[in-house]
Amino acid sequence: MNSREGDCSETWPEQPVASISELRQCIDELSQGTTLAWRGQARPEWMLESTLDRRLHRVAPDESYKQWLGRERGMIAQFRSLAKPYASETEKRYLHGSVWTTLAFGRHAGLPTRLLDWTESPWVAAWFACHEQSDGAIWWFAQKPLEDVLHPRWDGWGVPRRATVLHCEERRDLIDAFGLNERALEETAFDPHGSAWVTKIHYGYPSPRMEAQQGFITTCGRLRKTHNVAIDELPESETIPRGRIHIPATLKDEVLRVLRTMNIHAKSLEYPGVDIVARSIDP
To answer: Which residue of 84, 112, 134, 233 could cross-link 55, Cys pair, CB 3.0 to 4.6 Å?
Structure first.
């Protein structure tokens, strides 16, 4: 077992289910009194590794961290340039907004990024866990406890507030009105010596594909780190309820049949667009 797989059985305990009724009961019990984030993965042994990390480990395993960051920047620039003719007006706002909106859009179009998709619907996550013929897993964590642990950490991580970066701290009214007091994550995320923070990011503009998946993203301040390890390394991480549901391959067809009755299927979750461009870009 390599370090990218690891063993998270203690920090992300796995609960097996053997039937639809057990899956429903498990989801109902976990969801009592709290809002959870859910992520379906087609292989139970996969850790919470981004598509960019997975791709770079394959094509450039011996390159330095700085070279990896250079490849990432190059992919972002190439995607912004080549995707423009294919993008709708809403999609163009993602392309020309912050780096995070570009990455969120690219991620949903198939571009390898450092982001991970999560959903607030356990059944959407179940589709992603079941769409391949092998055992799958649904990862989950409680959102508010994670946020409560994150909020006191940003100064220690050295991530400045956006108002500081823009040199406009004296206009507190404008800062509050336009949300400029949020953290400027990009100030450390693309720095070879940046901190290994982890956080949630919600989408800034409406997008049919993102709305259909009822989702948001997590991202980490460092490549070469799985998001489950980044969360495990947070101070007081033991206060964040989290775990996995193991779905056997023998149950997947039945799960997919139930999901179709909920109108959750490939066509309802995926939309055509700039996919052909995103998937053609290599680091």
So the answer is: 112
Residue 130 half-sphere exposure toward CB, CA atoms < 13 A: 25
Reported pTM = 0.87
Most distant pair of Cα atoms in the chain: their distance: 61
Q: Reply yes or no on whether the pLDDT at 172 is more than 90.
A: no
The length of the chain is 283
How many angstroms from the chain centroid is the CA of residue 205? 17
Angle between helices 20-31 and 249-261 (to 10 degrees): 70
pLDDT at 214 over 70: no
Copy the structure tokens of residue 28: 């109902």
* Each residue's pLDDT tens digit, 18-28: 999 999 999 99
